[in-house]
Each structure stands twice: as structure tokens, then as C-alpha cells.
Amino acid sequence: MIVALAGGVGGAKLAHGLAQCLTPENLTVIVNTADDFEIYGLRVCPDLDTVMYTLAGIANAVTGWGVADDTFVALEMLRTYGEDTWFQIGDKDFATDILRTRMLAAGRTLTEATRALCTGLGIGPALLPMCDQPVATVIQTADGELDFQEYFVRQHHEPTVTGVRYRDIETARPSEPVLATLAEAEAIVLCPSNPIVSIGPILAVPGMRNAIITSAAPKVAVSPIVAGSALRGPADRMLESLGHEVSAHGIAKLYADLVQGMVIDEADAALAAPIRGLGMEVLAAQTVMRDDRSRESLAGTVLNFATSLKVAAG
Amino acid sequence: MIVALAGGVGGAKLAHGLAQCLTPENLTVIVNTADDFEIYGLRVCPDLDTVMYTLAGIANAVTGWGVADDTFVALEMLRTYGEDTWFQIGDKDFATDILRTRMLAAGRTLTEATRALCTGLGIGPALLPMCDQPVATVIQTADGELDFQEYFVRQHHEPTVTGVRYRDIETARPSEPVLATLAEAEAIVLCPSNPIVSIGPILAVPGMRNAIITSAAPKVAVSPIVAGSALRGPADRMLESLGHEVSAHGIAKLYADLVQGMVIDEADAALAAPIRGLGMEVLAAQTVMRDDRSRESLAGTVLNFATSLKVAAG
User: Fold this and answer.
1) b or e along B40-56 (b: 16 or more beta carbons within 10 Å of the residue's beta carbon)?
2) DSSP 8-state assignment for residue A288
3) What does the angle CA A200 – CA A204 – CA A205 come to, to the nearest 5 degrees?
4) Pick from B8, B4, B3: which is nearest to B198 by CA?
5) Distance from A119 to chain B by nearest Cα, in Å?
6) Cβ contact A91–B82 (<8 Å)
7) Phi-psi category of B57—alpha, beta or left, where left has phi over 0 and alpha has psi -120 to 50?
8) Rounded distance between C-alpha atoms, residue A86 and residue A75, angstroms
9) What is the mean pLDDT of chain B?
10) ∠ CA(B271), CA(B273), CA(B276), 5° rounding?
11) Handedness of CA B18, B19, B20, B26 (dihedral sign)
């Protein structure tokens, strides 16, 4: 069993690459749910849906969220009703949220609801929310705290982030399926997602970090920072304002107690030596995933790298 | 204040005609809610929405339900997820249901939710649900009981109706706004809606019939049966299988203890004498509403007729 930890777009792409390399029953993706929130009375799970739509092959590659070729008729009608429609949801996307909200209202867990949605979309690999309890990333700025989507979508991740906390994380627990899958993991891959607001909340779920550390599987991270920048989103600015080094080396430092291997971009090959200095193996590869083939190629590279670590450890 | 009692399409058309004749503050439409139900986790109110969309000028004239030029992208996605999408909801229509469900979940009454939706659509006249408590029309057939939409939509109102009951009607009460508007009514109009499943539930709300009877206002009904047939829907077959006379005279008998005047179609002019024999005034008019002008024309005729009854009573 290969276990991937993923947030939004970058994580979804590598998860998709892994899905191309592995048989469905050998891949589980644990997804951040701390950016979930409620709007228009519906439970919206942006990261879960990005991964789900990407694995189903229906993700909108242009926006990075939602379903390809979706329409916005319902949203327009909400606007007619006077709703502030700052958070865009397409019509197909509404169907997802409507079903999930109904399942949750009926007492099913987010894990169960996600499984049902994935089954409907014909997705083979297991997609697991990091936990079933609601957790919310809160962004701290000089002007006060912002709910994550308020910061990310409404304010276009423009405010300078001075701190991040995960509200209600203390009441969260990895679900039974998450713990079971980590226990049987043969490799654990930290996808190239934002380390603060995507991978960070997953690792902050009480019990999660320990379950990963105590796993006998080799752990590998793929840097979301390439040549000093995030390919997408605010990870670079966020790392900087929080006092971290904005580089693959900075990412490696954040994961130093967790992983035995780091995949960095060829553009950052010069950082291999300092990262090795942190006590981990390094592989420089082409990490920018521009199409399905490069996703699969990177996934294969990551899996081979993890296997080599395993062999070395054995 | 003119008060109209309405169900679906026919009632909505006359309500729209009345809205063209009257200033908004002088018209209130009390609408059947016994065909409301829950599907896809949302609270759907078919009659309320038909009247609302019709008054807003956005009703789908072809189907008789939903919004004109609506799309069905969300519904198609629900089907992809494996949902049985026997009940069609368009994308714009979903926006209505999403907002209503959210307001009800937040503890607002259906009356309040309806007011908010009508405000959003710029509707002047007041639209009042017959009550705020959930009531459900149950259709009895030789093969057992069917929920109303199961009978009406899923089974295309094909089963023979052997009886009708309104589940939970005993716990329902006319809302304060309904009682207040009836108390100040200058005329009460029973629109040409199905007397069994549209007007019937309204009159069955405990206290409603008495509030209408004790009102000093003249009461007028418009026959939904023209030349022995319903213009739309199963009213004719339903009346027959329930042992009623399928004619304007049969309608008049059902309303005999309630109204002082009956508007029938010119095609039924020969029934005027027998209907007068029931102790009410009769006006034969062109009652088929094919366009906005004929709606307004019929509404004007009904209002004049009601006024004449008032004068006669005075």
C-alpha cells in the first residue's frame, strides 16, 4: 500500500500520477480537510474535491478547482436572490456538495460520504479525509484572523500571513481507515502541497504524526517550492512571512523529523548537498507536472526513490 | 386586500392576473404546501415555487414547473453519482431549494423563507404558505398509499386515486400572517386549482375553513374544470375516481358551503342554472388563460364579480 498525503492542486496531480502507476487497491490518498467550510448551507471540501475530480479525470485544469466545463447557472440565481457569491461553485460542483451535505446530515461520516462520492465517479484508489471531525485553518494577519477561504478566495491570498492555527484540531483524530492504511503503508509520500495549510493540518491531527513516524515504511516528500517559488498559490509568500526559508531546503527542514527522502526539482540540484546535511536522501528530478505523462513520470520516480530508501534501510 | 388561494399552474396564472390588476400591497396569495417534500436533502415546494416564479415572470410556461430556460447540469451530475433523478430540478431551481433549505435549517419558518425568496425575485404581492408545519398529501390507490410526488411525477399521475389524506394536517395551523390577511380580506378567490390536492389541503388546515367562512368578504371560486375536463393535470380523473361529478357543477358542490359565487367557463354556461340551485351566484366567462392578457382579463372579471356579490350582500 502506497499512502499519499495531499492538499489541493499539486497534491492532486501527484496523486493522479500515482494512480497511473499503481493498481487502485494499492493507493490511498489522505487529504487535508481543514479548508472545508460551509456556504449556502452546504458543506464544501475544496481539497477533497480537487483530488477527487483530478483522480476522476474531470478536474478543471485552468482554474485548479471545480469540474471541467462546469456552468454557473445556480450561482447566478443565488446572486439574483441577493446572495454574496464570492465563493464560486459550479453546477456540477453543487451536485457534489448537495449529496455530501445530505449524507452528513443523515449521520454519515465525511469518510463514508467521500467513499460514496468516489464510487459514483468510478475512482479506484481510496480517498480519505484526514479526519471526520470539522477542523478549520485560521489565517492570522496584522488585521486579525481570517477563515481560510476568506483569506484564500475572497481576499485572493493577498494579506500577509503572520501565523496559522487549526481551529478544533485538538478534538480531531485520524479515522480508523487512516490509521489502518498508515499501518500497512509500504511508502508514504508527502505530495507537493503547501506545507503550512495543506500538509500542515494533516500532520497536526493528534496521533497522525506519530502514526507516520512509527510506520516502518520509507517516507518521501516532494518539494512544492521550485527555484524559490511556489508553482501555484501563496506557499512561497506564506513561508517567507512565517520566517521559513523559501526553498526546497526550507521545505526539507520542515519535514526533517518525518521523511528519509526528499525529491527536489532539477532546478534546485544545488540544494541537494545542504538537504543531505539535514540527514535525508535527496533526488533531483523534473517535478513540474504539466500533463498526465509528467504526473506519471514523477510518480514513478518518487516510488522508485522510496523503494531505494527501503532497500537502504533494510 | 384581495386574498387568493392557489395550488400549481392554474392558480399561479390567476394569481399573476390578479397581480396585474391590483397594487402589490392589496394582494396576498395563500399557497398549498402539502405537495412539499424533501429530495436530494433539499426542501422542495413545488406549488409555492410555481406561484413565485409565475409572479416573477420567470416561470417555465411549457413544463408548468421550474424556471424558464433553466439548465439541468447539477441534476445530470447527480445522475452521474448514481442518484435516481426521477424528480427534475433545474440549476436555477436548485438555487431556490438550497436557499430555502438553509433558511429552514437556520430555524426560520417557511413563511419567512418564502418572503426572503420573493424579495430576492422582486415580487410585490405577499406569498404565504398555507402553514409553517410540514403537511403531506398522501394518495391512496388500489396498490396502497403513495407520497404525492411519487404519484404525480414518478408515476405520471396514472394510478387511479381511491382516496386522499393529508398527513400531519392535525398538527398544522394557519400562520399569523394567513389569519391576519384573511381577517382583512375584501374578497377571497379560490383559484382554478385542483380542488382535492391543491385547494383541498389549504382548506383542511385546522382553523382555515372557519377563518374563511367567518370572513365578511365575498368568496368566489373559479372552476378548474372546463367542459368536463381539467386543462392540465389529473383533477378530472381524480374527481371521477373519488365519486365526484367531473364538471363545474361538481366543483361548485365541493365549495357550496364556502363561496357565494362561482366563475365557470362560457363552454359550461348550461351549468349556470344547476349551480345557482346550490345557492350561489354564477358568472360564465372566458376562463382559459392562454397569455398574460387573458390572465389579467379573467382576474378583472373575477374581481368585478366578487364586488357585485359584496354589493348584493350589503
Assistant:
1) bbbbbbbbbbbbbbbbb
2) -
3) 130
4) B8
5) 8
6) no
7) left
8) 10
9) 96
10) 110
11) positive
Nearest by Cα to A7 from A158, A193, A161: A193
Q: From CA B182, how far away is CA B204, in angstroms rounded?
A: 15
pLDDT attached to residue B312: 58
Scan for cell 394557519, then name that residue: B174
> Which phi and psi (to 5°) does residue A238 adopt?
-65, -45
Q: What is the H or E stretch that residue B73 is in? A: helix B73-80
- Across the interface, do B74 and A74 touch by the CB < 8 Å criterion? yes
What pTM, to 2 d.p., does this model score? 0.94
CA atoms of B128 and B24, how far apart (whole Å): 14
Q: Across-strand partners of A39?
A: A42
Domains of chain A, with CATH numbers? Answer: 2-58+125-132+172-313 (3.40.50.10680), 136-169 (no CATH)
Q: Which of A91, A97, A100 to mutate to test the interface with B (most CBs of B within 10 A)?
A: A91
* Cβ(A254)–Cβ(A225) below 8 Å: no
| A88 grid coordinates | 464560486
Residues 6+ apart with CB under 8 A from B173: B131, B133, B205, B206, B207
* Measured distance CA(B265)–CA(A70) in Å, rounded: 48
Q: Which residues of A touch B75 (CB under 8 A)?
A: 95
Confidence of residue A314 (pLDDT cuts 50, 70, 90): very low
Residues 6+ apart with CB under 8 A from B218: B187, B188, B260, B261, B306, B307, B309, B310, B313
The three three-digit cell numbers of residue B205, written as one number: 388546515
Instruction: Give the E-state strand segments of chain A in sequence order.
Output: 2-6, 27-31, 37-39, 42-44, 126-129, 136-141, 144-147, 161-167, 187-190, 219-222, 225-226, 229-230, 261-265, 281-285
CB distance A158 to A139 below 8 Å: no
A81 → closest Cβ in B42, B76, B120: B120
Name chain A contacts of B40, Cβ cutoff 8 Å. 98-99, 102
Q: Which three cell numbers stand for residue A221?
A: 516528500
Cell (9 digits) for A302? 518518487
Backbone angles phi, psi at B144, to 5 degrees: 115, -170
Q: Which residues pair with B128 in a beta bridge?
A: B30
Residue by residue, DSSP assigns A163-220 as EEEEETGGG----HHHHHHHHT-SEEEE-SS-TTTTHHHHHHSTTHHHHHHT-SS-EE
**Looking up cell 431556490, which residue turns up?**
B96
Tell which phi-psi region holds residue B207, choosing left (phi > 0), alpha (psi between -120 and 50) or beta: left
A95/B81 Cβ within 8 A: yes
Q: What would the pLDDT profile of A121-167 be if each residue is shown by its tens digit?
A: 999 999 999 999 999 999 999 999 999 999 999 999 999 999 999 99
